[in-house]
């Protein structure tokens, strides 16, 4: 019996090691895909329903986990971003990763700091406010991309009369497709692109 138990324990440890290795590699892969500067210029040039938007996502707190500072602005107004967040990537289970979104205090102080990520070194996670219910759940696809979305009506939003917001994303090593929308209590869309997500081509690799 002791021999059988020892064999089972050894097998379990081997399986656990393989799972852990795969898990770390997959999380690191998504983290790398999300890093860099992105642009919707090509999409905007082809379809006037879409704005020319610049998106910057750069790693911070590299000794604390998988964190990114995210800044999004109209290309013509780079110093007036309409979205600033910190994203944290986590492992949910064997097949699922998650991206959690945090709001920065005094966000105007951080405009353009994607150029100098070390500026965040003195900021603590406790200083941030998590947007609970707004996390993305992402799963790796057969083509190597990651695809995911927020929960159903879990992400509260009051922007432009919305009651909740949804996000759907597809990420690979060349682009990020993001479809953010707001809905009122009756389920009517009140903001966001109507035909599909914004296509952000990666223009600067980190």
UniProtKB/TrEMBL annotation:
UniProt keyword list: Lyase
Molecular function in Gene Ontology: lyase activity
InterPro entries in alphabetical order: CpcT/CpeT, CpcT/CpeT_sf
Family that this chain belongs to: Belongs to the CpcT/CpeT biliprotein lyase family.
Species of provenance: Sungkyunkwania multivorans
Domain of life per record: Bacteria
Entry keyword Mitochondrion: no
Protein name: Chromophore lyase CpcT/CpeT
HAMAP family given in the database record: Chrphore_lyase_CpxT
